[in-house]
Design a protein that fits this description.
Shape: globular
Structural class: alpha+beta
Order of helices and strands: EEHHEHHEHEHHEEHEEEEEHEEEEEH
Number of strands: 17
Amino acid sequence: MAPQTSAVNSDNLFIPLVDFSLFLHGSPSERLSTAQSILHGFQTAGFIYLTNHSIPLPTLSNTFSTSAKFFERPQSEKDALGWTTPEANRGYVSHGREKVSTLINKEDVAASRAQAPDLKESIEIGREGAEGLPNNWPEYKGEGKEFKDVMLEFHDLAKQLHIEVMRAIAVGMGLDKRYFDSYTDLGDNTLRLLHYPPAPKSVFSSNKLQVRAGEHTDYGSITLLFQDDRGGLQVKSPNGTFVNATPIPGTVVVNAGDLLARWSNDTIKSTLHRVVEPPAPEEGDVHPARYSIAYFCNPNFDRTIEAIEGTYGGGKGPKKYEAINSGEYLVQRLAATY
């Protein structure tokens, strides 16, 4: 494995900055070395940053601007697209409705939400054409048509990036490059557009529990996170402190989720993270809005997930988890969150 450049290096937390073009287009040795760096980042930190990834930066910029225009719509128009069920996991989520946390009991989550609701709104967009699970699109004309077209293009590009990252994990683990392809080809993934509204500094100072998104792990295989330049994302270090994961222009932050940790028999880490009060504004007492785009990746919902070959047996110990259906697992986790 080649020497690594760090995106984050603080309090025993090392998150590598990986040039993904070397995996996509490099020589065999470059592909292998890059795959090993990616796997090592997931095994030690649970997070990596990718530069020179496959999503064109102009496309990413246009997706951000289209997202911002959506959140400027009247509240009534957004509410009409409301999120409905964990099975669908599609639609608009208003301020304070979701409370991400480490809690799994619905009543405990509700109590935590009442104490300090997450300061964000979002819209969830799933795989288009999934039977019985339509996406909630704005009225299909003018800006509504533009929104749909832009988000479907981005969903497809992110799906392909998910496939390639999972191929890198497979190569890093010594498996066939296409080991995960039959788990990722449908694209049962969720594109989430996030808007953290402007917030006075007093909101955070008057309630020490207040964050923009609570401490949590993600549920699926991996998450692709595209940030603006506002900051606020923090990752929990091995020493138990939260470390800033500062935005780096042109990169995507990728973190492993709980299902990938389970799939890897806990050889890969799903690490706690949160979104907190960002660095103090240069002027005034109000933090500007923050926008991010998260693409939550899952194995195909009809697939059964059990420990990957080579992660158990002999000195590695037994399988830690029973086999589980991917789609059912996600529904169980979402049901406690809303």
